[in-house]
Amino acid sequence: MNRTSRLCRTVAAVSAACALWSSAHAQAPVTYKVIGQPAATGLVQKNVEKPFFDDFAARTGLNIQADYKPVDQLGIKDTEQLRVMKAGLFDIVSLRVSQNSRDEPTLLGLDLVGAAPDYATARKVYDAYKGVLDTRLQKQFQVKLLGAWPFGPQILFCKKPVASLADLKGLKVRTYDQNLSKFMESVGATPVPLSFTEVHQSLSLGVVDCAITGPSSANSSGWPEVTTHQYGLGVQMAVNAYAISMKAWNKLKPEEQAKLQAAFTKLTDDIWAYSQELTIDAMDCNTGKPSCKLNKPYKLVDSPLKEADKKTLTDAVARISVPTWAEICDKANKSCSADWKATAGKVLGIQ
């Protein structure tokens, strides 16, 4: 074998080795660090969200694994999710919208008190507003919105007889954002901001008389053990969102971004449907109806909705919710309320 042949073989061997190394390196799995919904919130987290992230590579069609942990098991407050994302500590977050609205008031435009009392309206608001919110989150926190979904109508659970909003006068009511607190004040209640995990004990000890959450979340966390009445006036829809850091997003090729977005669109669509199913069932389960199937049966008193309370809630959107929120949001983001009125406000007929 002459010198040229030996050199060619050597070059070929090195090239082959480099190709194998490059292939192996390219196929090495990436792991995303993911903040999930609190495990205490119940069946959406347990039966839909967690399985999605546990099987992340298969669900997305990408060579990416997910290191998924619920926020209540991380030692991170659910009000700090955007901050830790901006700091680069996590790649994807299951974002608690109302809880993070103090850091970014624009978020609350998805879920103003009284604006979206049902699933169909909430979906219209999200579809209209998502572009505005995505742009803002990218600019302020370097995260991209991948989708949003609701836990469902947020209703009252009380340890005292409550059959109307008028019965809340003088009572201490757990709230979770400033918009809801302002509405509770307007009907004579005293708002008490508490995280979800603090509520059961606070009800038990009398720190609060009532608390607001979705029927299924209340059921999963045992609130009917420490309350007696359920009043089904849905003041908000408890919208939550998925967001990815722009750093992680920008590392993906366009076709990979499309796959990831498609997977999250399917996930959020699945949760919209499942949430509605859970809400109907939990309303029955909380009051011990035979139709209860998915949640745990309890024996709360379910007070019929008052038409006057529905009107009070509807009137509160233009009178309380939008002005209160706009004042705060426009200070942080000067086009905030104008952007909302041009999108979500337009589909709701609120200008």
Automatic annotation (TrEMBL):
GO terms for biological process: transmembrane transport. SUPFAM superfamilies: Periplasmic binding protein-like II. The keyword Manganese does not apply. Gene3D superfamilies: Bacterial extracellular solute-binding protein, family 7. Residues 1-26 form the signal peptide. InterPro entries: DctP_fam (IPR018389), TRAP_DctP_sf (IPR038404). Keywords: Signal. Coiled coil: none annotated. It holds the Pfam family DctP. NCBIfam families: TRAP_S1. This is TRAP transporter substrate-binding protein.
